[in-house]
């Protein structure tokens, strides 16, 4: 999803939570500014649902929480809040909050032409501040391609590019699956 700048005044985090409860759309909150979240394509939605379902089923007997695009993430050390397409937290500190999580180990963003630069750039820079984030997966909605930003044991971020025929490996939640599992039955066409 893309955040399009809205016109509300500068808000405190508390004002943001109260204000957003009255809105029809979701809004990200970055540095006191509110940004409306636009909708995605049919493929975007289907891919996000497949990821959430695959991950939630895999983690069914664990203490982890799988979130969809309705679950906010508080950026560690800030009052900023985003809505990724899918997230997973296994951190006990996230069991005490009701409006957001702060310590996801996995974040999945489904890309579109309007979101790709933000998701690869400033949004990832914010997410990287999270000490427990291990996997940040960027998923194409127009071709069978995924880019995984994986934090290794020494804290370096590696970029793994996946394409048709590859097996995705999410070490953060000990899950591997063929890339085609997510793209099955989809008609993939470049965005206009």
TrEMBL record:
The secretion signal range is none
Gene3D superfamilies assigned: tt1808, chain A
- Superkingdom is Bacteria
- Name the keywords, alphabetized: Endonuclease, Hydrolase, Nuclease
| Pfam families listed in its UniProt record | Uma2
* Domain Putative restriction endonuclease: start-end pairs: 13-173
InterPro entries per the record?
Nuclease_put_TT1808 (IPR012296), Restrct_endonuc-II-like (IPR011335), Uma2 (IPR008538)
* SUPFAM superfamilies for this protein: Restriction endonuclease-like (SSF52980)
The molecular function GO annotations come to:
endonuclease activity
Task: Quote the PANTHER family the UniProt record gives.
Answer: GLR1098 PROTEIN (PTHR36558), RESTRICTION ENDONUCLEASE DOMAIN-CONTAINING PROTEIN-RELATED (PTHR36558:SF1)
What is this protein's record name?
Uma2 family endonuclease
Source organism (scientific name): Lusitaniella coriacea LEGE 07157
């Amino acid at each position: 999803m893309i955040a399009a700048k809205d016109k509300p005044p500068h808000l405190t985090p508390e004002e943001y939570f109260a204000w957003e409860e009255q809105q029809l759309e979701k809004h990200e909150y970055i540095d006191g500014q509110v940004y409306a979240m636009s909708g995605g394509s049919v493929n975007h939605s289907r891919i996000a649902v497949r990821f959430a379902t695959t991950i939630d089923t895999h983690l069914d007997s664990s203490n982890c929480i799988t979130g969809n695009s309705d679950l906010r993430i508080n950026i560690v050390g800030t009052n900023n809040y985003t809505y990724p397409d899918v997230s997973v937290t296994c951190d006990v500190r996230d069991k005490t909050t009701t409006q957001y999580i702060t310590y996801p180990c996995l974040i999945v963003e489904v890309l579109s032409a309007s979101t790709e630069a933000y998701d690869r750039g400033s949004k990832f820079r914010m997410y990287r501040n999270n000490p427990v984030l291990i996997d940040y997966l960027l998923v194409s909605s127009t071709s069978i391609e995924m880019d995984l930003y994986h934090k290794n044991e020494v804290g370096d971020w590696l970029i793994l590019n996946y394409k048709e025929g590859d097996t995705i490996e999410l070490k953060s939640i000990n899950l591997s699956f063929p890339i085609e599992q997510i793209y099955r039955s989809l008609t993939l066409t470049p965005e206009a």
